[in-house]
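Researcher: Quick test of sequence recovery. Tokens follow.
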């Protein structure tokens, strides 16, 4: 069951599911985008996230909603010991925001960023 062919042909669409350290070591463009959004080195910013897509989406949410405490506060909520979903974290930080819509928007922004930086 070798996936070598699949990995090459679908690499750009699967980038959002890659481990942050793996993706960042091969994709300096997304690393730069993350640094711009978070103000942090991308490896540091994305540490603790299951995949790069989650990290980029969280970075967009923090910026889009001007989350109190910024990206670090949001990251702590979604990756910490008592981690919650991005939607639940949004409700905690921005109760008036439409968490579902904001999550969808941030995921689309993250997908667009990842497509942009891998093509």
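Model:
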């Amino acid at each position: 069951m070798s996936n070598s062919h699949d990995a090459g042909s679908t690499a750009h669409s699967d980038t959002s599911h890659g481990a942050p350290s793996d993706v960042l070591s091969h994709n300096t463009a997304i690393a730069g985008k993350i640094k711009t959004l978070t103000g942090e080195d991308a490896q540091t910013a994305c540490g603790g996230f299951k995949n790069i897509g989650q990290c980029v989406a969280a970075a967009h949410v923090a910026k889009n909603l001007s989350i109190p405490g910024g990206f670090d506060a949001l990251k702590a909520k979604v990756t910490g010991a008592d981690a919650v979903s991005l939607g639940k974290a949004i409700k905690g930080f921005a109760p008036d925001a439409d968490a579902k819509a904001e999550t969808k928007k941030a995921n689309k922004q993250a997908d667009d960023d990842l497509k942009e930086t891998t093509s």
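Residues 10 and 18 are 12 Å apart (CA to CA).
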